[in-house]
Amino acid sequence: MLDQIARIPADMKHELAVRTVTTTIVDVPTVRQHKLSQTSVSAQSYVIVEILLENGVIGAGEAATLGGPRWSEESVESIKANIDSYLAPALVGLDASQFESAASRMDAAAKRNNAAKAAIQSALIDAVGKTLDLPAHAFLGGLVRERFPVLWTLASGDPAQEVEEAEAKLAARLHRTFKVKIGAQAPDADMLRLGVLAKALGDRAELIVDANQAWDETTALRCMREMADLGVVLVEQPLPAWNIDGMSRLRHRCETPLLADESVFTTHDMMTVARAGAADAVSLKLVKHGGLRELHKVAAVAEAAGVALYGGCLLESSIGAAAHLQAFAGLRGLSWGCEHFGPQILKQDLVVTPLHFENFHVHLPKGPGLGIEIDPQQLARFARK
Ligand code: MUC
Ligand code: MG
Description:
- By secondary structure, the chain is an alpha/beta fold.
- The chain folds into 2 domains: about 1-140, Enolase-like, N-terminal domain (Enolase-like, domain 1, 2-Layer Sandwich), CATH 3.30.390.10; about 145-370, Enolase-like C-terminal domain (TIM Barrel, Alpha-Beta Barrel).
- About 40% of the residues lie in helices and about 20% in strands.
- It contains 15 helices and 13 strands.
- The chain has a 7-stranded parallel beta sheet with strand order 5-6-7-8-9-10-11.
- Helix 3 (about 75-90) crosses helix 4.
- The longest helix is centred in the N-terminal third of the chain and has 19 residues, at about 115-130.
- Magnesium ion (MG) binds near residues 236 and 237.
């Protein structure tokens, strides 16, 4: 495969040049309200990026957000504006296979804007992959796995509804690990809610929690002890993203492993967390790291420090989820599996053939590029007017 990439003929270089970069904001309703500490959503908003090459091939990428600029600083409006005004002009005419040059041009054109940059890199890789008839993972070290254990997130806040939802997922053999979003209500109410879930599901399921930065250290310490008694196996981002020292203290006082999410966007953040011994695992997400290649770089720093890998999401459709799976496919250690249930929480996916879920796993789509095709009718239907 690498030979094929190295032998791109000179006359194809022009064919691979970026002609246009198009951005479309879409709002896709979810099957139920999804509540987390910072926000609550009943529709997922994405920017869909389509890159047209001189050879006529179109590559796709997706920038996900969660309830506006609340989960991180980017919103669909800022992503679209910054791509249209700054990132796209920096790329027009560039050979799309020059992924590192594209990343460096984008960094010069705009600081951070990681979700925007990741969507563009996905589209570049998709377009080049479709041109060469190679899957995206061929550009990222190839394939070490083709299916991924996948969890489901419980986030209605209503324990009776959540037990029913988890039972349905278990019965359908879709998910047996559940991530419970906590922090939107008082800690005691969340502990009661977790107690109901732990009792109802027993040893038929594993529970993970994500507090999305909701707590201070004292609250986190108390709740982590209660959650350990309830059998919770992993606690994600209990403290504010900046409180690395606090995460480190918690980690040394509690046995339940800690997962860093909002604390780790860049490779430098990963170094800081690793040096402080502030996490047992890191959640890898395109919207944080700025690209599939950058996701691999964060993973490499984590692996060097002995921090385990968890395949994170931001409720992407099959477009963004496929991009993540293509990147995860080449990671040797992904010991916590992944959470790309996003396509299943949407009332309607945006691709012709949605990702396949079976036997508690999500499957890497086959085919060139990301392995998916946008459904133009659905894109038009959900495009913001
Ligand atoms: C997050 O913080 O992990 C991922 C799954 C989910 O329910 O929320 C997101 C974001
Ligand atoms: Mg999280």
